[in-house]
Amino acid sequence: MRFISDKVEEVSTTMIMFVVASSLIGVLPVGYLLVDMYDPTVSWSESSSDYKVLLTVFLMLLIMMGGLVIMFLKMKVEINANATAIEARMFPFMRSYRISNLSDIQSLEIIKYDSMMKYGGVGLKKQLGGLTSYTMNTKGHTLRIKFKEKKELHVQITKIEDWKRYISEFKNQSV
Predict the structure, then answer these.
(1) How far apart are CA 36 and CA 58, in angstroms?
(2) CB-CB contact of 51 with 37 (8 Å)
(3) What angle in degrees, to the nearest 10, is found between the helix axes of 49-74 and 13-37?
(4) Which residues pair with 153 in a beta bridge?
(5) Residue 1: its pLDDT value, please?
(6) What are the distances in angstroms from CA 54 to CA 14, 48, 59?
(7) pLDDT, tens digit, for every residue of 30-76?
(8) Which residues have CB under 8 Å from 36's CB, separation 6+?
(9) CA–CA distance, 126 with 122 (Å, rounded to integer)
(10) Are the C-beta atoms of residues 6 and 163 closer than 8 Å to each other?
């Protein structure tokens, strides 16, 4: 069997908009209180401790928002396959690969998906019943890996023709 390496790095714009909008909803009340409490006639040393704490919280929220946006921009799905195993991970949520030996796999197939309808959104999703998915976009193709112990792993892929050849080799090997 041949070696395949596939990577999906483009983040869905819907996901980025959701992260920014939800972060802004958290920051707006604190920003409003800061503006409301600001008194230009008072120096920093004379300002109330409530104002200083509120400003610190606001700055921490902004740093966390920036970290979230950077994390989502660095997100990627990686999948590698060779003659003995398939490895998949969703960086930065998973530092190491999830290794699936071919002897533990019942079937492989490529399916089209709509992540909002099938998985409940994009990202690393674990559902009851043993379905796990790693997706970056709301629509596309995933490699469906069915395990012998009734669990499934769906990993978004882009090199569809290479994966079709790999699946046919897998089927020929397992027959």
Answers:
(1) 14
(2) yes
(3) 170
(4) 132, 145
(5) 52
(6) 31, 10, 9
(7) 888 888 888 888 887 888 888 888 888 888 888 988 888 888 888 88
(8) none
(9) 11
(10) yes
d(Cα 39, Cα 41) in Å, to the nearest integer? 6
State pLDDT tens for residues 72-129: 888 888 999 988 889 999 888 888 888 988 889 898 999 998 877 777 777 788 888 8
Convert the pLDDT of each residue in 13-29 to its tens digit: 777 787 788 888 878 88
CA distance 11 to 153: 20
N- to C-terminal Cα separation, the chain: 14
CB of 138 closer than 8 Å to CB of 158: no
How would you label 90-108 residue by residue, b for 16+ Cβ within 10 Å and e otherwise?
bbeeeeeebebebeebeeb
Tell me the sheet residues that pair with 86. Answer: 81, 100
Q: Cα separation of 27 and 30, whole Å?
A: 5
Please, are residues 36 and 28 in contact by the beta-carbon 8 Å criterion? no
Element (H, E) at 27: helix 13-37
